[in-house]
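Here comes a specimen:
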Amino acid sequence: MNTNQTLDGLAAPLRALRLLAADFGYLPVPTVSISPIYPDRLELSFHSGLPDFEAWREALEAAPGAVDYHVQRNGGTGVLRAVAAYAGAELELYGYFDVVTAMPAEAGAA
């Protein structure tokens, strides 16, 4: 990482965040992450389930077929990821949710 980097180096994701607040202020609040390691990226994370992730995905017009899905934590947490371009920044949307699994029927249970 460049230790001489300035805040100007994060102009793209900061501009995108400002415009998102103006254009989509009615949408659910995400967890926001900006890092000098990826200076053109703005990450929006949703830990409150699928509806918030979907609202943002639709607003940013990220195609449903372009959403990646995987599980973590021994299959207990589902993770959705979508990427969209907005205001000169790369936006990464992450949605986290509990994976519900059916319990197998006990032997002899009715």
About this structure: The first strand starts at residue 31 and ends at 35. Helices lie at 11-23, 50-59. Strands lie at 31-35, 38-46, 68-72, 77-86, 89-98. The CA atoms of residues 10 and 36 lie 7 Å apart.
